[in-house]
Amino acid sequence: MNNDQLPSVLPETDRTRHRRLREQGSLDRAQLDAVLEAGFVCHLGVVVDGVPMVVPTVYGSDGRHLYFHGSVASRSLVASPGAAVCVTVTHVDGLVLARSVFEHGVNYRSAMVYGVPRLVTDPEEKLAGLRRLTEQATPGQWDYARQPNRKELAATALLALSLEEASVKIRTGAPDDGDGPDAALGIWAGVLPLKPTWGAPEADPLLPAGIAPPPHITARGGA
Fold first, then answer.
1. 3-state secondary structure 132-163
2. Are 122 and 76 in contact (CB under 8 A)?
3. Which residues pair with 191 in a beta bridge?
4. 185 domain-assigned
5. Which CATH number belongs to the domain containing residue 59 in this structure?
6. Do 70 and 58 meet the contact criterion of CB atoms below 8 Å apart?
7. Low-confidence residues of the chain, pLDDT below 50?
8. Taking every pair of C-alpha atoms in the chain, what is the biggest distance, in angstroms?
9. 135-167: b or e for each residue (b if 16 or more CB lie within 10 Å)?
């Protein structure tokens, strides 16, 4: 399936239906793409030996699939092909500090993707998926660094999860108690934004002198 065949509106299923805070939910695939493009770490939820596990891992998205990987010995990755999983991506944009503790909250963007992941065995797709992972975290790094050799590829399991079934939720704005009884308390209320930034690149202590970080890294790292 190519990207043009994915509907612009996410299908509503029993797993993706927004039952609480429905006003924060979205069925817009463009918003799903934006949430996924803004990050590179996800949490993979999978049941292993009857016990739920939630594992953080890196991912890459091509608009059709979510690719994530790990060692072939990883229990969660070995168990997930053929089993339903839930992958979540969350970005915290700020603390919502209200007049009452009850009304406190978080401004955030989140996505939950459901489905049965597919173990990627095609060599070309595997390389393309690993490139997605690398480029999502650090654009430009795939062509700069040494690419994986045959032994490394054999030791790496790459999974592809379709983006057909997903749920998006986004909260923005001020506290919700500005026009209620607590407005008369004289307590400061508002949003404390969270804006993550990269620091300056820190060289490996074993790096020989004279090797400077490439432009695609310094451009992100504030050097």
1. HHHHHHCCCHHHHCCCCCHHHHHCEEEEEEEC
2. no
3. 96
4. no
5. 2.30.110.10
6. no
7. 1-3
8. 67
9. bbebeeeeeeeeeeeeeeeeebbbbbbbbbbbb
**β-pair partners for 105:** 96
Q: Please indicate, yes or no, if residue 108 is contained in any of the structural domains.
A: yes
- Summarised one tens digit per residue, pLDDT across range 171-193 is 999 999 999 999 999 999 999 99
pLDDT in tens, 127-165: 999 999 999 999 999 999 999 999 999 988 899 999 999
Q: Outline where the chain has alpha helix (H).
A: 29-37, 75-79, 123-137, 141-144, 150-154, 215-221
d(Cα 132, Cα 118) in Å, to the nearest integer?
16
- Residue 40's nearest CA partner among 54, 59, 26, 25 is 59
Domain range spanning residue 68? Answer: 3-177+192-200+209-221
* Domains identified in the chain, total number: 1
Per this entry, what is the length of the chain?
223
Retrieve residue 116's tokens.
């049965």
Within a domain: 183:
no
Q: Which token pair is 178?
A: 């500005």
Does a structural domain hold residue 84? yes
